[in-house]
Write a structure and sequence with these properties.
The protein is α/β, with parallel strands linked by helices. It is built from 11 helices and 8 strands. The protein has 2 domains: 240 residues, Spore Coat Polysaccharide Biosynthesis Protein SpsA, Chain A; 73 residues. Helix content is 48%, strand content 12%. An 8-stranded mixed beta sheet has the order 7-5-6-4-1-2-3-8, with helices on both faces. Helix 6 packs parallel to helix 9, helix 8 runs parallel beside helix 9 and helix 10 runs antiparallel to helix 11. It is elongated, with a radius of gyration of 24 Å.
């Protein structure tokens, strides 16, 4: 098992995080993501744990870019389970076995934390984060197809290397949308995702994420992923009955709204009542369209992947040249 720690402005906490990682971990990859504090040099100078290996991104690529740098290194070094934790002390390394066990037991391909599992712990999360996560969680359910998970921006994750190796690293968002974008990519692979309960912990760490700055970007990217997922899953890879239900819903809803609005505006301009037959035709079309849409959503919820992928696929050959540094270098 390998742990990946993105390092960007985490100099105050990263050594404590490394020190709390248990002996079940064989390698710790600390990725200096163009850190202005020089996290990589600081770790090399002060760390005494021989498991630590420092990787560097010449330019800041965001949390996603740092994680994928760690993924590539761990995959090429032959590790089977890759865990990502932050270096700011928000994530308890003691929970590592809980994230790894479902993967080791072939119950999941990817595990992620859920800070909303225990309601009494939610109060520890700042209100702005609470509200932001609620909204983002619903959008993520629709765009990723994983309707049974929550807290999509949680960065405490674990993945099997066989699945990680098949992710399109060059296409995944590299910054704050990384955690939710990777869920969409996992669904296209039909990987099984499982939530792991964890506490919300906020102390004196500094967050680089501002909800107000990413709401619009996230909404656009969720909509994009939703359309891509539906197109791929229901019209390219397969054509189940739900595909016909979706088309029928779109046609009927569009017709009902456009037809009803047109005649309502025409009647208003003429100062006459809209004929009952016209009203009923619009209502029937909209009602039937909603029923088809609900049927499609019900099918989509039931279509969440249930069979783990990683036992069925072979690992890919390694290709990475040895260019990283270790703490003992």
């Amino acid at each position: 098992m390998a742990v990946i720690i993105p390092c960007y402005r985490v100099k105050r906490h990263v050594l404590q995080v490394i020190g709390a990682i248990g002996s079940e971990v064989s390698r710790i990859y600390c990725v200096d993501d163009g850190c202005p504090e020089g996290s990589g040099d600081y770790i090399l100078e002060h760390n005494v744990d021989p498991r630590v290996q420092v990787l560097r991104n010449a330019q800041n690529q965001g949390v996603g870019g740092a994680v994928m740098t760690g993924y590539r290194a761990a995959i090429d070094d032959g590790y089977q389970v890759l865990v990502k934790i932050d270096g700011d002390g928000q994530m308890d390394p003691a929970l590592l076995p809980e994230f790894v066990n479902p993967i080791a037991l072939a119950q999941a391909d990817y595990t992620k934390g859920n800070r909303f599992w225990e309601l009494t712990q939610i109060k520890r999360m700042p209100m702005i984060r609470r509200l932001g996560n609620l909204g983002l969680s619903f959008m993520a359910k629709a765009s990723s197809g994983y309707w049974d998970i929550f807290d999509p921006t949680n960065g405490y994750t674990a993945i099997h290397a066989n699945v990680a190796a098949r992710l399109p690293f060059d296409s995944i968002s590299k910054r704050y949308f990384f955690e939710t974008d990777i869920l969409f990519r996992l669904n296209t692979l039909r990987a099984v995702v499982k939530d792991i309960p964890m506490d919300a912990h906020y102390a004196d760490e500094t967050s680089n994420l501002k909800i107000s700055n990413i709401v619009g970007e996230f909404a656009f990217k969720h909509a994009r992923n939703l359309f891509k997922r539906i197109g791929y899953s229901y019209f390219l890879r397969d054509l189940p009955v739900a595909s016909i239900e979706l088309l029928a819903a779109i046609v009927l809803l569009s017709f009902g709204v456009v037809f009803g609005s047109y005649h309502w505006l025409q009647s208003g301009a003429a100062g006459v009542a809209t004929p009952v037959g016209t009203i009923m035709l619009s209502i029937v079309a909209i009602t039937t369209g909603l029923q088809f849409m609900l049927a499609f959503v019900g099918y989509d919820i039931g279509n969440t992947p249930r069979t783990p992928l990683h036992p069925l696929i072979r690992p890919r050959p390694t290709r990475r040249p040895k260019q990283e540094q270790t703490a003992s270098d």
